[in-house]
Amino acid sequence: MALLDIKELHATIDEDDGAKAILKGIDLTIRPGEVHAVMGPNGAGKSTLSNVIAGRPGYTVTQGSVTYDGADLLEMEADERARAGLFLAFQYPVEIPGVATATFLKTAINARRKAAGEPEIEALDFLKLMKSTSKRLGVPEDMLKRPVNVGFSGGEKKRVEVLQMAMLEPRLCVLDETDSGLDIDALKVVADGVNALRAPDRGMLVITHYQRLLDYIVPDVVHVLADGRIVKTGDKTLAQELEAKGYAEFTGAAA
Amino acid sequence: MSATLTDVLPLAPDEQALGRDEPGWLADLRRAGLSVYRARGLPTVKVEAWKYTSLSGLTKIPYVLDDGGVALSEGGDRDALALDDAWTVTLVNGRPVGVPDELPDSVRVDHLSRLLEDEPETLEPHLGRIADLADAPMGSLNAAHMTEGLVILVDDGVVLDRPIHVVSVTEAADGARHMHPRHFVVLGEAADVTLVESRVCAPGADATLSNAVQEIRLGERARLRHLRLVASGEEAVDLDLTEAEVGAEAAYEAFTLTLGGRLVRNETRARLRGSGAAARLRGAYGVCCGQHVDTTLVVDHAVPDTTSDQLYKGVVDAQGRAVFQGKIIVRRDAQRSDGGQLHKALLLAPDAEVDTKPELEIYADDVKCGHGATVGDLDRDQVFYLMARGIPEAEARALLVEAFLDDVVGAVPDGPLRAAFLGAVRRWQAGRHAATWEA
């Protein structure tokens, strides 16, 4: 069974002056173990796609369906989706003053355990998990005592996103422009972290503007998104092709 | 004639009986109080200091003066802060029940009634001399009525390593009672004390009117941390006027957390009377469900080289109303005063309301004073970020509310004290969500 099955998805973004159509018929299927990349120019609908999958308020699905692990994803609230194993790595991780990163992580882990009818994580087990994961991702431990994302550099924020992903053990990871704002060293660390999570029962959707990230996270399938539609699908060589030729061919076609 | 006046003016005492068998100075104090109350009556919104809080509704409730005789019920103090390591004294309807054992000789904790009876000369220099009630109708009414309260006298140089915890419980009595406790805290030079107050309500003891006045005097270099939890009953009217007179190099550090009560007014006045005196007035409140919580602060920089800061944060949920009035006065000669004020409120529902009134009265020219106020809702992106990690919306919002209050609750010393206050915030949040879910 497909892990994620998107059919004929149309979505609008709610704006002050009315709804604006962004997604205009997306079909996309991810099976367990697969890594899909969605590439596209600015304004193609990449972030809208990730936000609609994650359940962010402010978007309306006008047509089509999204099925996750056999369930109707669009019927679930954002928190239910996350507890069901969906993880969105944010393009712009949100700063939350007053909430320590460690507290936040523990609350998230326990929310999921509670929903699964499991007891809360033991304090010692949590500390061990946090220590080993942060070490692997090169996140200094004292950062986890600080409020969520407050005062973190761009690279640190992305690293902590991947740290959260590793600790929450999702089944479907959606990475929204995780490469934006990263220098090459940070990019490698983040990509290593993501690669370590590749597993036969886990799917990934990597959304990016540039091919650079895909040198490190090598996808099984590459889709080109332009003007709210997937206009081309291929293997990893498609990404290299795009790097050489740019998006002009598709934006032209879409216009 | 007095009977007629009592009819016209609710809550006032019988003038004929006022001050009978008492020393002249005390009788004068009572008469002065009654005359201010008579002249001004129950405050309404026409009075600037009560601009957003009217007491005129109190006339509808047939309050009778509390005459004591009510005992602490089983579990009546269950909502008090849980502090194991403290000298605890319990008050029922404003009247102390016993005094803590094993206090050092240098600290006296006693009943106001006992001192009024046996040694009024001990009280004479303080009682009614610290708080200036000429402009305070309710404080003046307290002066006319007061018979009971707690007296804390600390000798010079005494540093207490444990807090004194005053657990003030409202208990059910026949009918709705009104009560007028008067408390005193006098610290000698360089004394250092942490005073914790839990104002709570026993189950079923809702309709009361407490009109308390606290007079605090800090000697030179003394320091008082005054930490308060106000968790009064659902139908309780809880008025408190605290006036602190702060000596040279002394510090009054207050933190007030208000979470309960139908109508609560915490009026805190700090008068900085000696060079180097400091007042830090901090607090937080959580208001919902038809509650009205008024915080009124006045800091008076009376002499040069004093500092103050006011930091309050509040959360107002459905049908709650909060009032924040903060005033900084800098007298003509009070050069190099440094005063700050910041009030931030979160409105969690469309029918939540907050009224903010900052006031600066500055008569000196070399001063540093500033104020700020914000009112907002929870950040949508923050709520979504937490939900995207699997945290249910109600829990996400509660976490963000706690985060919002984090820096101000941080004014409470770290350790068991802060944990106790945080526990109270969490219980309030849990109760608020329960209420929302039921509705």
From TrEMBL, chain A:
Which Gene Ontology molecular function entries are recorded, alphabetically? ATP binding; ATP hydrolysis activity
Q: What CDD domains does the record tag this protein with?
A: ABC_FeS_Assembly
Q: Where is the ABC transporter domain?
A: 4-252
Q: What are the UniProt keywords, alphabetically?
A: ATP-binding, Nucleotide-binding
Tell me if Transmembrane is a UniProt keyword of this record: no
Q: Which family does it belong to?
A: Belongs to the ABC transporter superfamily. Ycf16 family.
Protein known as: Fe-S cluster assembly ATP-binding protein
SMART domains on file: AAA (SM00382)
Gene3D superfamilies recorded: P-loop containing nucleotide triphosphate hydrolases
Automatic annotation (TrEMBL), chain B:
Identify the SUPFAM superfamilies for this entry: Stabilizer of iron transporter SufD (SSF101960)
The record, for Pfam families, names: SUFBD_core, SufBD_N
Membrane-crossing residues? none
Recorded hits in InterPro entries, A to Z, give: Fe-S_cluster_assembly_SufBD, SUF_FeS_clus_asmbl_SufBD_core, SUF_FeS_clus_asmbl_SufBD_sf, SUF_FeS_clus_asmbl_SufD, SufBD_N
Q: Where is the SUF system FeS cluster assembly SufBD N-terminal domain?
A: 19-166
Taking every annotated instance into account, which residue ranges of this chain make up the domain SUF system FeS cluster assembly SufBD core?
A: 177-404
Q: Name one GO biological process term.
A: iron-sulfur cluster assembly
Tell me which NCBIfam families the record gives: sufD
In the record, the note on similarity to other proteins reads: Belongs to the iron-sulfur cluster assembly SufBD family.
The name of this protein is Fe-S cluster assembly protein SufD
Q: Which organism is it from?
A: Rhodospira trueperi
